[in-house]
Amino acid sequence: IQDDHKLSTSELEEKYGTSINKGLSSARAAEILARDGPNSLTPPKATPEIVKFLKQMVGGFSILLWIGAVFSWISFGIQLAQGAESPFDNLYLGVVLALVVILTGIFAYYQEAKSTNIMASFSKMIPQQALVIRDAEKKELPADQLVVGDIVEIKGGDRIPADIRLIFSQGCKVDNSSLTGESEPQSRSCDFTHENPLETRNIAFYSTTCVEGTATGIVINTGDRTVIGRIASLASGVGNEKTPIAIEIEHFVYLVAGVAISIGVLFFIISVSMRYKILDSIIFLIGIIVANVPEGLLATVTVSLSLTAKRMAKKNCLVKNLEAVETLGSTSIICSDKTGTLTQNRMTVAHLWFDNQIYSADTSEDQTTQPFDQSSPSWTALSKIVTLCNRAEFRPGQENLPIMKRVVVGDASETALLKFAEVILGDVMNIRARNKKVAEIPFNSTNKFQLSIHETDDSNDKRFLLVMKGAPERILERCSTIMINGKEEPLDSEKAEAFQTAYMELGGMGERVLGFCHLYLPENEFPDTYPFDTDSMNFPTSNLCFVGLLSMIDPPRSTVPDAVSKCRSAGIKVIMVTGDHPITAKAIAKSVGIISATSETVEDIAKRLNIPVEQVNRREATAAVVNGMELKDMSLQQLDEILCNHSEIVFARTSPQQKLIIVEGCQRQGAVVAVTGDGVNDSPALKKADIGIAMGIAGSDAAKNAADMVLLDDNFASIVTGVEEGRLIFDNLKKTIAYTLTKNIAELCPFLIYIIASIPMPIGTITILFIDLGTDIIPSVALAYEKAESDIMNRRPRNKRKDRLVNEQLAVYSYLQIGIMQSVGAFVTYFTVYAEQGFLPSTLLGVRVDWENNAINDFEDSYGQEWTKYQRMYLQWTGYTAFFVSITIQQVADLIIRKTRRNSIFQQGLFRNKVIWVGIFSQIGIALILTYGLGHVTALNFTPLRFQYWFVAVPFAILIWVYDEVRKLFIRRYPGSWWDKNMYY
Amino acid sequence: GLILLFYLVFYGFLAALFTFTMWVMLQTLSSDIPKYRDRISSPGLMISPKPDTALEFYFNKSDAQSYAEYVSTLRKFLESYDDSKQSQNINCTPGRIFDQNDVAVKKACRFNLSELGQCSGKEDKTFGYSKGTPCVLVKMNRIIGLKPEGEPRIQCTSKEEGMVEINYFPPEGLIDLMYFPYYGKSLHAHYLQPLVAVQLAINSNSTKEEIAIECKILGSPNLKNEDDRDKFLGRIAFKVQMTE
Q1: In terms of CB atoms within 10 Å, which end of chain A has fewer, N or C?
Q2: Catalytic annotation, pick one of A175, A337, A580, A690
């Protein structure tokens, strides 16, 4: 793309108008900054707030309610034109409906914005600094102020602040893993080594890190024009799939809207053919729509999801997109990184070999002692070498921290050894001080060993101690004896054989093995004053005494094996995708249970049966370790075959690009895929996945941007807790929806019977809204706090095509059984109220037209009394209130039965979920306030109600409870029966 | 199949349950008086004839067809007050509440049509419509157990002064207390509620004009006539427009 890597320094100076020694002038830099913009990646374009807001206003049921509102206004207009007496009722109804839409819309928008804000605050990072030469001076500048042509200096540990062409380098190495996925550091120099700018050594890329050395370079690309920037913008091109819960809710909305519209239209036709006026029919239609639409439900769902999101955030899963909460629950495959996610991301001593025996060390996160046998004098010698032949040091001032948490200056292996020694021996720095170092040869790649010579703290022994560690085979070469139980014994072939076996065994476990040897220098040859010279090596470096081996590994997090086995019982396949070496990857996979103890790969079988790999029946192998190189040459079918046929898969040596291929492969199997990632190059895979999980600690901004979720502690186990929460919320949303849908029938039946039997209206539209948006809200949210009925991690992930949120059984059971029971109960109350005031049920049938006639003010009841219109209306409102109260009372029973779907309420515990009780009390409290507090506000159509009417529906409420217990009993008793199939939702 | 059977049984059960609870509820009710009467503590007023749509009378005094409906309504309404229908009714003591709490068979008081004078329809078969003095009967809604206090009477006023002269039958629009209380349809089958006829002698200058009349019940402290919301509680407003 660019050929800056081919240009010479002076050509570069000319091209960018800069000077290597003086840098740009501040004025010039400001000019370029104004032209190119700051050196930072543009975050993915956010949907404009207004669009988000409008979406909330028309999404879900809002359209239906808008239609209802418009119809109300139309009928208001018509009535006004006809000069009817009370046209304003319809105007108000329309306004109320519009308000409902707007308020629930604002609420949903607010919820959404709140959860986005959590994320936004999190993604703000501490600004990066860069060392720049400008105006011939070195300056620290925020990295986003860099411009093309700036001369920057970098050193080990820095993040490369932009794409730079190196012009000076001293032992500079960079870690390009976020770009290429290869974790081996690559050296960087000023030489043009490759035509391809991505391969050449003299360019360092934005957002990669400089591991060691120093370098100076010219900035050649900034911000979105950097290589990483171009990849990041590519990631935003990968489309976002609809989340499973969004699909479920859409399905549910269609279902309910379908029911609403068809019943509405059906009864519109019926009422027209029953010679109702068109205007009346339209008003009925509005009532039916309002009764059918669960106005409060979508808000409830949002609240439930955000409650879960909060709960998950406490467990270190930060959810960016509310709907992702449930997606995680339906996950069937998790593609997990190894380093840092499954492992602790730090080298730790795992095994020791001395006295011809392998010892295991404790690798847990919070080790304070080591349990292996430390009585052998060989261990004393080995520990001395480990302690002394080590350049790593603790940063000062951390004495109070646990050893494992202390920060160490030094490389990974030496850190591991230092901590290991500190745990066992105590104050290592003190030991080193007492065994003064007189000479040292640091580790280098040519001799592959590290050596140091010390005075000893034994005042009777004036000999110097030479200690050495390094690659085991190189160390062994230099030894002629080996220490067994503290005694030096000649190193014969038998002992060398034992060493080989141990070395192979440790290496086979994917561990990095180091050998340790020592030599006490004879006092006569090396007196106190002997001038050790490391250049001429005037001391022996062969015929040493071999003491032992130590092997190190980045050990799995202690919580991970448990989490993996949980996944296994939950039917979730865990696939490890790592850039590491296959042997290490497999060893970790085995130790965490991704490859279970009994399963074998094709290679394992071949080895066991002693036959070539090609002859192994591939079906027999449950596990597979796939190398990235093999993956490169695989066709899609071959990949599918691997994903299909093996239940335990490890992808090793894979690049982040291959991750995307793996994710797509899993999705082709119909799986809901969760993917973890941290590098910039993971972002396409994170986007493509059904749920992308970025690492909070190790993750790059780009990964966090692309992900749906951020794992604050980078721990795999947190994903599993998230899955658990996700599954629970799916179950609980089911309960919430079942609870909410039920009373829709009790709200709808009055309209239907009113139209057909021409009785006085049993319940008003406004009253319905008070149930949907008043009494029912807190209880339906309370169901989100319900505990799981059984171990939800013991069943398979839901099949997104079959296991719907709202299935036929749920709708039928809620609508046609419990809903009808509620209606019956409410109608009994309604008829009771009218009968006790003088209108027996027989009198009520067919009275609608006269009842509603404003001119009839001597309407005769069953006892010969005469009623004015207003007196009738007031009675009608009392009827509304009674109907309302009955529904509320029966909804209490409905709430209790919805706590479980299969278990008895008594198994679940009536009082375990306290929030349910808050819900019940709020429900009754709101009803009391509406009835007795607002009973005198005419516009609300509530009237104070005789106390006994609260209890008319109680037997029906009890019946609902008993009936549901019976239903659950049969479901538990006869699994798979006709009853189970039809009654379990 | 099984599903249909299930719902048949299920709904059958619910229907039975509904019927049963309704039956139980109805058993608790008396057939004589409703359990509660608090929603109609005070009676409304109503007139006869009652024009179809709104309470507005439009007629031409020289066109019999234009008021035929009013006349026939009145005639029909007064049929039950005919002497022949009142043979079982007794003559009560005027001016006193006629308490019959202890009597099993409640008697009805006789209401003589002659009390309605010119509006009885006996002398003038057109109830004054042909003469420009239309009659409107005002009645008070029946409420079981209602015992008016004081001396209830109907008084009508016209907003427009001097357009109409109002005469009452019985005189001063009095409603006699002897017609109260009412014991309900089943106990008090022959009960006739007292009527007040209001004759509107429309000033000949005021023909073609719409005259708004409001009638109220006065003179009784326990009969409300000022309710904000209920425009028919103890009062009634109607309009009359007569052409020639």
Answers
A1: N
A2: A337
